[in-house]
Amino acid sequence: MKKSILCTLALVALSLAPLSLNAQTPADYTWDTPSKNASESMPCGGGSIGMNVWVENGDILFYVCRTGSFDENNTILKQGRFRIKLTPALHTDKDFRQTLKVNDGYVSITDGEKTVNIWVDVYKPVIHVDVDGRQNVKVEARYENWRTTDKPLGDRERFQTSYKWSAPEGTVTHRDSISADRESVTFVHHNGDYTIFDATVAQQKMDAVKGQMYNPLKNLTFGGRMSGNNLFFSGKTTGTYADTPYTAWTYISGKAAKKHQLRITLATAQCDIAQWKTMLERTERLVNDNKDRTASRRWWNQFWQRSWIEGSGECEQLTRNYTLFRYMLGCNAMSDWPTKFNGGLMAFDPVYVDKNNHNTPDFRNWGGGVYTMQNQRLVYWPMLKSGDYDAIKSQFEFYKRIYKNAELRSKVYWNHDGAAFTEQMENYGLPNYDEYGSIRPDGYDPGMQYNAWLEYTWDTALEFCQMILESESYANQNISEYIPFIQSTLDFFNEHYRYLARARGIKELDGSGKLIIYPGSGAETFKMAYNSTSTVAGLKTVTSSLISYLKKHNEDSLLLKKDTTLLKSIPDISFREVNGHQVLSPAVTWARVNNTEPTELYPVFPWRIYGVGKPDLKIAQDTYLYDPFALEFRSHVGWKQDNIWAADLGLTDEAARLAKLKLSDGPYRFPAFWGPGFDWSPDHNWGGSGMIGMQDMLLQEANGKMILFPAWPKTWDVHFKLHASDNTTVEATLKDGKVVKINVLPKSRAHDIVISNDD
């Protein structure tokens, strides 16, 4: 057990330096040999674009993926694959280097005589390939596309769509439209009027309000154009890569030169193709290579000064991988759409994840436009402490766009207020087509998913409500535009469980004046639960946070009264006894166990009711140490959260053990490509949960205090800067078991520092 010592900066003999002097530059990451295939690729990106970059047989290849590229079936389609050949050829001997320039956000490839820099404009959807040789070189650039004809979806391939196993016979991935002229090739995918949105609305009996619903898929058009100075069309070829046939459009340089520039400009909009081309051309006219390069590198430089965790010795590899994964999240910082948990922007050919999966590079498990929010939350929680508020906003905007559709569900099915969010939710706010259940019993509630895992699983949206509310404190963000979504989410629970009680013919509240949250669910695990602890803890936390917000901003007194009444009606967290230990219970009762999530620990994380410096810590620790479900389900794989709970409970040795399992090098060449875990590779909820755990090992908050090193081994030297509530940043250095530097901004919060140690 740790004890905490309250220290002010003046009492600890700490070195205080101006923040600018403490700024860190993340180390480059380099390979000195080429790669064998796409699974040995390196991430590169910016804005809303991600690439997999690798060198294979002397060719430079990269996939391009942009968030929001949803086809008719809600698959995320890659824009294509690009291949660069140099003459003289790129040497792959002792002088070869492929480097992720982490601080500047780009990939550089060199053989000592020729250098190719690949980078993305953070502010405009433009990819740049800059070739620089000591001597004159010639360039061959190929655009490779595997969607040149309509392709019927195979059984396994259907899982990349929102139809999954329920795809109607004859479902296809529709072809792209590709046109080549002398100096450029244009590629575009255009969704028609009818998409899976329409099929889902009909399936779920929402046709009466279809005209009121947000539909992000209708007439969605996306793609781009490849062009370059001194590059001219030379013809089409065909080939096969990783079991997938493709067609290539090849452009070659008219003459050898020391410098060449290739540009790929992208555009996405709900419009016709003519309007899309106008949008694309407008972006092309705005390109200024030198200014855009400078601005983009400046953005990445500033990104790395927001926060960092840099360790040495035993934790050096872990902190490096933390940084590399954060880079991958930063590649989507300017997007309208959240980073997907199942591969993000860097998914690669599926045969390299599963040798039996021979589908196209567009494949990812669990769909493209399906947002499994239990998984998504782990990608976004760490952005509060890392200070990446521009990146987290896309997830907030996601809910702002869809919550009206979720409200319509409540009105159509049950005639009450509130946004009814489910798990396995589409990017338009309805349950996933397949998980809803294509074959349903007569008379079954049309508002319910007919699904053993997902029935009565309502509450993940609460975590995003809390993220929004905390972002105001962490970064002084104006969150007023999201308050209607938060209020509607809370309204659903109040309205729906009163509705269910009335439907059973009983009073709306129990004998203690509390809501009867039944039937409920502890995530996908504890089913037909009575007062699920994860739901109760979430409702208590979010309602309390919203009340504090309303009081602070003198908001609508009627809302304040309503939420205060709701808070009083939320039932208490449940406990039970295990081998003489009082522990948190998953619920009062439950009918069956369906998955492997110990939601009895959710009051620790995400809800932070229990933890270091908070009351009844032993109860929560004993839950982690002795509860049979917590023990049975323990793991570091994928979305497992044991590393977070260990950190939050001050269990230093256990947190360190799990951090090493979570953040050690993944199975692919790039060390932050983890997975597939339970989902797909690169597994982003694996990386996100690893980030959260490491952050919490270094910094936690309780009762207005900021606790440093609550679960960090004294033998792990580290220098970190992280964000905390009340618009605060904390920078600290631990060396040889001693805290040698702390810098807190604003300085008025220095007295709130608590240093946790083993002495």
Provide a descriptive summary of the structure in words.
The protein is globular and about 85 Å long. Strand 13 and strand 14 form a beta hairpin. The longest helix is centred in the middle third of the chain and has 26 residues. It has a 15-stranded antiparallel sheet that branches. The protein has 759 residues and is of the alpha+beta class. The protein has 2 domains: 269 residues, Distorted Sandwich (Beta-galactosidase, Chain A, domain 5), CATH 2.70.98.50; 408 residues, Glycosyltransferase (Alpha/alpha barrel), CATH 1.50.10. The N and C termini lie close together (11 Å). It has 17 helices and 32 strands. 28% of the residues lie in helices and 25% in strands. Helix 7 packs parallel to helix 10.
Low-confidence stretches: 1-21
Return the CATH class of the largest domain: Mainly Alpha
Secondary structure class reads: alpha+beta
Summed up, the domain count is: 2
The CATH topology annotation of the largest domain reads as Glycosyltransferase
Rg measurement, Å:
26 Å
Structure summary, number of beta strands = 32
Name the beta content range: 25-35%
Proportion in helices:
25-40%
| End-to-end separation | 11 Å
**Mean pLDDT reading:** 95
Shape label:
globular
CATH architecture of the largest domain: Alpha/alpha barrel
Biggest sheet, in brief?
A: 15 strands, antiparallel
The number of helical runs is 17
